[in-house]
Amino acid sequence: MNRPKNILITGATGGIGIELLRQLKKSDQLDGISVLARDSKKNRIMLASYANLISIFWGDLMDEASLVPACKNQEVVIHLAGLIPPAFHEDDARSLKINVEGTRNVISTLEEHSPNAFLIFSSSVVVYGDRLKTPEINVGDPLDPEQYDQYGIAKIETEKDIQNSKLNWTILRLSAIMGIGNHKVSGIIFHVPLDTPMEICTMRDTARAFVNAPNNLDQLNKRIFNLGGGSACRISYHDFLARAFKSFGMGKVNFPKYTFATMNFHCGYYMDGDDLEDILHFQSDTLDTYFERFHASVSPIQRFFTRPFAGIAKWYLRTLSEPYKAYKSRNNEEMIRFFGTTNLKEDE
């Protein structure tokens, strides 16, 4: 089908959003593109190079009046906006409200002002919950988010709202999305059990899926898909960290016992990921190509000076570990969350 002329992107200043704009610009597809973004100095700087190429609407998901100008006369809306971890978990209740009610505001505004619009929504593997023992995931699997994860609950609520809307829609459940140089170090890295099976998808491949989606609306309509990098992008979390640590000059992934959680996280392998790849043809990266670029992003000088202080760096990282803090403080509730038991033997 012909590519729709009027396409709105929310969350355009996020990692996927800005890569999406970059690819659209490179392929000369910015005609008819508009974005909705919060008005901030940072966002204005990020969008400055696109100011004369696209329509920019400054607004907020929680301010319905500000959504109206952006949502009028749109044919497709690529909805990427919302808080994601770790920022989401700084205030779970507030973030849940923003992500769920904010999307409801987008839906209702579109239903009124662009009732024929097609909504493309980025969901997440988080909706499937802990799949450590059953890592092979298909779209029809039960949605069972980890009980402490409000982010997963928000995604499930929003998926329901989209499916119950009057709009045409598709939902793409993103796997572990990996960019280059865009991940802030936070304690969430220790929430992931080391033996977690992961299927990553690079930022550029993910963005390419959203670039190609408006050309294939008929095949996507009223369907949910798993979006991952494919079989060439599968790895255990331990081995992923090991390759990343090597690039930084950090040595081995050797932390004290109980630094990493052993349960209650998500991720797994998308067994039906080819369903989306066959339509959108977005996969180009493998683990090797990702880590080639990852390694190249770290300067040799940085690696050289990191190696002698790798122990100190890992000591600092350990101070961010909530599982380790729970173990050390004998916080029963948190130990149940991260380990499933309070009967943890002393670290040797």
Short description:
The protein is an alpha/beta fold.
Notes on the structure:
The protein is an alpha/beta fold and 348 residues long. The chain has a domain at 7-181 and 199-233 and 268-291: 3-Layer(aba) Sandwich (Rossmann fold), CATH 3.40.50. The protein is built from 14 helices and 12 strands. It has helices at 15-26, 41-47, 64-71, 92-113, 150-163, 203-212, 217-220, 237-248, 274-280, 287-297, 300-306, 310-318, 322-329, 332-339, and strands at 7-10, 33-37, 55-58, 76-79, 118-124, 136-137, 168-174, 176-178, 197-202, 223-227, 234-236, 269-270. The strands form 3 sheets. Strands 3-2-1-4-5-7-10 form a 7-stranded parallel sheet, sandwiched between helices. Strands 8-9-11 form a 3-stranded mixed sheet. Strands 6-12 form a two-stranded parallel ribbon. Strand 2 (33-37), helix 2 and strand 3 (55-58) form a beta-alpha-beta unit. Helix 4 packs parallel to helix 5. The mean pLDDT is 95.
